[in-house]
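Hi, here's the filled form for the chain we discussed.

Project: internal
Contact: R.S.
Residues: 58
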Amino acid sequence: MQTNRGFIGKIILIIIGLALLKYFFDWSIFDAIDSPRGQAAISYIKDIITYIWNEIIH
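And the returned structure, exactly as it came back:
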């Protein structure tokens, strides 16, 4: 039995997980992103990705 589900399987699991969070906890990824804390987290992640791209990969 193959245990590697692949990229599409991981995407489907993430979507199902987000749907379960919305259903059971009334939590929305879009509300989290719109909050000031979510914006700060996205900015931090963007800075890390930009640094990795510029310094390590490129």
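Let me know if anything looks off before we file it.
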